[in-house]
Design goal:
Elements (H helix, E strand, L loop, with lengths): L14 H6 L1 H7 L1 H13 L7 H21 L1 H13 L8 H10 L5
Amino acid sequence: MSGTIDAAGEPIPTSAVLMAAAKHIAARCRAENVAFIKCKKKDPNPEKCLDKGRQVTSCVLNLLKELHQKCPKEMDAYAGCMYYYTNEFDLCRKEQEAFEKACPVSE
């Protein structure tokens, strides 16, 4: 699906792309997400956690770029399926399996 990358060849973090990469994000960006959540719980002022939020965003964007370099065909097929079926995991298991085989989830 050509709609998953921009003109520079970078993955576009649409909901379908983020949902397709959710397991990878959970594993690889866990520390950044936990730090952000802890910050938010400690201080309700959104300004206090901007740096932690930027770290989460940076981690996710770097991970998406890495996944797209390692297994672009499988990632695009899975994200395309998720887009087509409005993020219904159950309807995209075949694409998910191929994606996770090509790019196994790791920390």
